[in-house]
Amino acid sequence: MSDVNDGIGAARETAEAVETEAGTARITWHPAHEPRLVLAVSHGAGGGIEARDLKALAEVLPAHGVTVARVEQPWRVAGKKLAPAPRTLDTGWRGIWPALAAPGLPVISGGRSAGARVACRTAGELGAHAVLALSFPLHPPGKPEKSRAAELLGSGVPTLVVQGGNDPFGRPEEFPEGAYALVEVPYGDHGFAVPKRAEISQDEAVAVVTDAVAGWAGSLG
């Protein structure tokens, strides 16, 4: 484990390499002073842990008693541009889990886009306390008939979806009813970016994400 300081969060963060059957993964820890939960969040198939929502959660959540672990899947650590098959992503997440659980705290399994799908698929078997699904890709853009709702509905644990109002992978009104909570980021796209003409600023859009997650995490037993 090595010390890292990129300006995110008040506490000193650390980076940890973790060996998995899918290759070497990396966890960047953002510790809370008095943690009661760990929130593990991974990236999507087209980006990394520098995504605006993941960075914002790492900055805000530790003050709410939540240690944040931003997780880079092995394919990303290896510098590859294309994510592997879902089963390989799941293998990597399973390999990372013991390190996430090592602090001895309940772990919220989370991620954005493809990372959210991994969290939903593996929550039950890994014993996740809850699931955070950021920009859940309900279907490929323009193909609503290819729904992935079964993954979301099958998480088996308390689940929060945070979805952009204009996400081409599934707008909030497209989501089926189910035992999960959904918070909309008005005007947000798949990366929660909002157009300049929107009635909220980019900072306000990101605050919708962090406020929703902080409030939800605080409600978890």
UniProtKB/TrEMBL annotation:
Pfam families: Abhydrolase_11 (PF20408). The keyword Hydrolase applies. Keywords: Hydrolase. This is Alpha/beta family hydrolase. It comes from the Bacteria. One of its GO terms (molecular function) is hydrolase activity. Residues 38-216 form the KANL3/Tex30 alpha/beta hydrolase-like domain.
